[in-house]
Amino acid sequence: MKTPPLCYNGDMTKKIAVVGVGGRTGTLFAYEMRNSAQILGVARHAQLEDIKQGNILVARQGSMPTRFESDIVEEQAFSGEAAPDFIFLTVKNPVAPSVRYYYERIQQEKPPDLVLSQNGVVAAEEARTELERIFGSNAQRIRIIRVSLFNPISMERIEGNSVISYFLPIRLAFGVAFGPDEIQDLRGIFLESGFEAEEVPSKNVKNMEFSKLFTNLLGVPSSSHGLSIEEGFADKKVFEEEIESLREYARTVKKGGGRFLNLHHYPTRLYALLLGCVPVPVLSLFRKQIAKAITKGRGSKEKGNIDEIDYYSGAVVGMGERLGVETPVNRKIYQTMKART
User: Fold this and answer.
1) Is 339 helix (H, G, I), strand (E, B) or coil?
2) Of 105, 121, 149, 122, whose CA–CA distance to 17 is shortest?
3) DSSP character string of 46-86
4) Is the dihedral of CA 139, 141, 142, 146 positive or negative?
5) Pairing state of beta strands 15-19 and 38-43?
6) What is the b/e burial string over 184-194, where b = at least 16 CB atoms within 10 angstroms of the residue's CB?
7) What is the rounded CA–CA span in Å between residue 290 and residue 233?
8) How many CA atoms lie within 13 A of 89 on its CB side?
9) Which of 4, 80, 134, 241 could form a Cys-Cys staple with 105, CB 3.0–4.6 A?
């Protein structure tokens, strides 16, 4: 679905608390939206000190790193007395503890809407359960908005600084998972920030999550062997694991009634169709080209958050168990990575 044209007033009236600044995703969103909304960064103590000392740098698309600055508070000091319009929760999975921590401090009659950027396919459901526990029926008034970010982000420690780098433009898909299905205000902020933001109808948000997980699974089998994507795809057996892990996942999604979407520069639906009908020996002939295409799309960055393997291969195994679909390759990968992490 193409994002409709929108004239946004850019009056900076919206307030956004970005939880997780100092980390990769939180820093990206706080930095890129700083001219489109009032940003309050929320950080842990160590990240807060790094930001105050100027040790968090942002390098956009190979540019010289610049110092990250933001209005910022330590997480313990977050107060709900003057709640923002949105809480952008960019911390890693699981989200339930963080949702509980911040929303139990909210004192307004209308709590802020919640934006979740985590990988995986369960964050919105976890958040809804916590909000219902806290607010009861009033939780239905809170929009839970899912964001799938397609820009790979890296963080390197260089000369005492943490350098967070990514390419431009920021590409993402977003949609309302739960709550009132009106998103014009957030759409405006994204557009004013220069994002390539594709709006996904509520009925397809779960399919958006399925599609993003498909892209996340690429390279995980290679990583389980201690290899980069290009190294893994150069090995026929590892390449076969890559393909079969995705086929297992596609079977679980189909069995559960889901489907894949073509989003931005990731035509996941087309990829899944090709993997399902083209024999592995034929795909193997092009494995080096496929690896280069994946690497290029990720800006030459490898998977950097395998500590969330529960929400990658582990999610496939869990879905397979619930739906009665065998997932032996993903189970093997999950067990290998779980032991390592």
Assistant:
1) helix
2) 105
3) HHHHHHHTT-EEEEETTPPPEE---EEEEGGG--BTT--SE
4) positive
5) parallel
6) eebbbbbbbbe
7) 8
8) 26
9) 80
What is the pLDDT at residue 47? 94
R_g of the chain computed on alpha carbons = 20
Sorted by where each begins, the domain ranges of the chain are: 15-200, 212-340
* CA-based nearest residue to 311, from 173, 118, 77: 118
**CATH H superfamily, domain 15-200:** NAD(P)-binding Rossmann-like Domain (3.40.50.720)
Spatial CA neighbour of 174 closest among 261, 71, 82: 261
Q: Which residues contact 263 (CB under 8 A, 6 or more apart)?
A: 148, 150, 173, 198, 200, 208, 211, 212
Q: Environment class of residue 62 by beta-carbon count within 10 Å: exposed (0-12), middle (13-18) or buried (19+)?
A: exposed
For the chain, 341 residues long, give each residue's pLDDT as a single digit of tens: 333 333 444 558 899 999 999 999 999 999 999 999 999 999 999 999 999 999 999 999 878 999 999 999 999 999 876 789 999 999 999 999 999 999 999 878 889 999 999 999 999 999 999 999 999 999 999 999 999 999 999 999 999 999 999 999 999 999 999 999 989 999 999 999 999 999 999 999 999 999 999 999 999 999 999 999 999 999 999 999 999 999 999 999 999 999 999 987 788 999 899 888 999 999 999 998 988 888 877 765 555 457 789 999 999 999 999 999 999 999 999 999 999 87
H helices of the chain, in order, are: 24-32, 45-52, 96-103, 123-135, 184-192, 205-217, 220-224, 229-234, 236-255, 268-277, 280-284, 287-297, 313-323, 328-340
Residue 323 CA from chain centroid, whole number:
25
Within 10 Å of residue 228's Cβ, how many Cβ atoms?
Answer: 16
Question: Any idea which residue has 């996942």 for tokens?
Answer: 249
- 212-340 CATH: 1.10.1040
